[in-house]
Amino acid sequence: MHQDFSKESLERITTGGLIGSRIHFFETIDSTNSHADVLATHGAREGEVVVADRQTAGRGRLRGRVWHSPPGRNLYTSVILRPPIPPAFATGLVFVAGVAVAELLNGYCPVALKWPNDVLAGGRKISGILTEMRSKGPEVEFVVVGIGINVNMEPDDFQEDLRPLSTSLREETSREVSRLDLTAGLYRLLEQWYRIFLRDGLAPVRDRWLEYSGMAGQMVEVTDGTVRHRGRCQGIDDEGILLLLDEHHRNISIRFGDVTIQKDG
Predict the structure, then answer these.
(1) Do both 24 and 138 map to the same domain?
(2) β-strand pairing of 118-121 with 112-114
(3) Res. 2: pLDDT tops 60
(4) Are residues 35 and 107 in the same domain?
(5) pLDDT of 219-243, one tens digit each?
(6) Which of 21, 146, 229, 236 could link 33 by a cystine bridge, Cβ 3.0 to 4.6 Å?
(7) Closest listed residue to residue 48, CA positions, set 8, 14, 73, 74
(8) Looking at residues 74-89, what average pLDDT do you find?
(9) Residue numbers of the domain that contains 26
């Protein structure tokens, strides 16, 4: 199925909402997040988005990680948001985006959220989220929410070392998926959950996020470099920090790390 994926086709299906109100489309770009940052710095309005058919330097959350971004296969987009909130609470937007992506992809195949910013299908990564904030004084100036979704990747399209760890909607559903429909659905759900976050805070977002993660009450191990923490997940606080209770009944707060759910025992 060949489908036109362009600024014009995207504008036809994303009219009317805040997110996607203006689309900056590129056939090739270094990073949609980097370009969105420049646009926002120069006054781009909330809801403007950057979309690319291909990235040459897509970034992962951890330093040095690259988001593999071939042309004609996936969705690479970044959204400019200007929430009227203190910087400490801007981390909640990664959970807003996570819930939106999970609800979107769950319409195609079962997915799970992995703290803080990955979406998994069958235990393999199908989507990643990268939020980057700039603040001015006591309030956020803007946040760029970058989202990458593996849509129509086939096994041979992945770098060899990533094949056991990554998947796509095509692999999970055995069919080609419309990137246009996916993009329109993403912007709609992201706007829906963003408005809930602004109106009601992180709590309803966090509750839905935990449902998709399956982490609440589970034993988890968090690795950050050479440091490992193991404990029972108590939830996530208002700043997006992971809360654990270790075997000595000590409370542990985790800001960064790679999480795996452990079997009890």
Answers:
(1) yes
(2) antiparallel
(3) no
(4) yes
(5) 999 998 888 999 999 999 988 899 9
(6) 146
(7) 14
(8) 95
(9) 7-213
Would you say 168 and 126 are in contact if contact means Cβ atoms under 8 Å apart?
yes
Q: Are residues 193 and 227 in the same domain?
A: no
- Residue identified by tokens 């998994």 is 120
- Residue 69 has a pLDDT of 67
Distances (CA, A) of 244 to 117, 146, 180, 239: 18, 28, 40, 15
* Residues contacting 183, CB < 8 A, separation 6+: 10, 13, 14, 20, 51, 75, 77
Q: Are both 82 and 208 inside the same structural domain?
A: yes
Cα angle for residues 12, 172, 168 (degrees, 5° grid): 60
Residue 154 Cα distances to 33, 70, 90, 167, angstroms? 25, 11, 35, 8
Q: Is position 112 within any domain?
A: yes
- Only one residue has tokens 């593996």, namely 150
Q: According to the model, what pLDDT value does residue 64 have?
A: 45
Residues 45 and 133 in one domain: yes
What gap in Å lies between CA 260 and CA 38, rounded to an integer? Answer: 35
CA distance linking residue 258 with residue 223, whole number of Å: 5
Residues 40 and 57 in one domain: yes
Contacts with 175 (C-beta within 8 Å, 6 or more apart), sequence order? none
Instruction: Judge if 229 and 174 occupy the same domain.
Output: no
Q: How many Å apart are CA 23 and CA 226, to the nearest integer?
A: 42
Distance of CA 188 to the CA centre of its chain: 15
The tens digit of pLDDT for each residue in 186-219 reads 999 999 999 999 999 999 999 999 999 988 899 9
- 48 falls within a domain: yes
Instruction: Say whether pLDDT at 26 is over 50.
Output: yes
Q: How far apart are CA 248 and CA 187, in angstroms?
A: 44
